[in-house]
Design brief:
By secondary structure, the chain is of the alpha/beta class. It is built from 13 helices and ten strands. Helix 1 packs across helix 13 and helix 2 crosses helix 3.
Length: 290
């Protein structure tokens, strides 16, 4: 599989870890920056960051456990804490002592867990609209999880792939985007098709979703309150999943917070929709952290 952007195609690679063979793409040289995506997506969501920031960082976007092209054992833990543990294993496998860590959506929650438990491995932290504290899962996502618990995941994914308008609709992923009509059919295929590649992959993703529980973020709150890693928080103000008040909670909780930015009208997946704004903030943040 390839991941494409305006500059052409970048080959997806993989590396063996105790948590499985983790798929990733990378571009650039220099200090490593590790991008962590959220639920229903994969590393492709960060393509604009990899393209634009590769002049200043070795930008790496992974596929989480039960997502994209990452290959795992059907019996293993796929919780968000397990994903945070995988990040450490991935850094080990890549022989990286530290990384600038960037997370969005559930990937932002995973990034918090990893940073809280491994502060010495985080050169800097950037959190965009994401799960935090006891807001996991957020209320607006609970109907989707109820559908999954009722056994409807395969049918729902098939419907969104058969008619991409379903994906973009208000009852599905439409509210995650400021302009859902601009998300291409090809992008939706890249995000969703891997879940249906085999029965095992579908079951792994189902397990990932049904393991959502705020106990994982509550468990690391005391460590998060000691985190000194230079932290940037960039938040969309029109997010039905993660209200802007959570950006204030994170800024107040993490003592290393250097800057909190609100993007007016942006929604949860703004790293894909408004990359220039995030990329500009990342350049400033990384420069100051250095």
């Amino acid at each position: 599989m390839t991941m494409t952007n305006s500059a052409g195609a970048t080959l997806k690679k993989s590396v063996a870890t105790p948590s499985g063979r983790i798929a990733y793409v990378e571009k650039g040289t220099g200090p490593a920056a590790l991008f962590v995506h959220g639920v229903l997506l994969n590393g492709y969501v960060w393509r604009n960051q990899l393209q634009a920031l590769s002049d200043t960082r070795r930008c790496i976007a992974i596929d989480l456990l039960a997502h994209g092209d990452t290959e795992i054992d059907s019996r293993q833990d796929v919780s968000v804490t397990a994903n945070a543990r995988m990040i450490g294993e991935f850094l080990d496998a890549m022989r990286l002592e530290q990384a600038d860590l960037i997370g969005n959506d559930s990937g932002g929650g995973i990034a918090q867990i990893f940073a809280a438990l491994n502060p010495d491995r985080v050169r800097s932290l950037t959190l965009t609209d994401c799960d935090a504290h006891d807001n996991w899962p957020p209320d607006a996502f609970k109907p989707f999880l109820e559908m999954v618990a009722a056994g409807g995941l395969q049918r729902t994914l098939e419907a969104m792939l058969a008619d991409k308008g379903v994906y973009r609709s208000p009852g599905a992923l439409g509210p995650a985007y400021e302009h859902p009509d601009r998300i291409t059919d090809a992008t939706i295929e890249i995000y969703l098709r891997p879940f249906l590649r085999t029965e095992g992959r579908l079951r792994d993703f189902e397990r990932f979703l049904l393991a959502f529980d705020c106990q994982h973020t509550l468990a690391i709150e005391s460590s998060l309150r000691k985190l000194q890693a230079p932290t940037l928080i960039v938040w969309g103000t029109d997010d039905v999943y993660f209200d802007v008040r959570w950006s204030n909670w994170l800024a107040d909780t993490i003592p290393g917070t250097k800057r909190r930015v609100e993007l007016q009208g942006a929604r949860i997946f703004f790293p894909e929709e408004r990359p220039e704004e995030l990329n500009r903030e990342l350049r400033v943040h990384w420069g100051a952290a250095r």
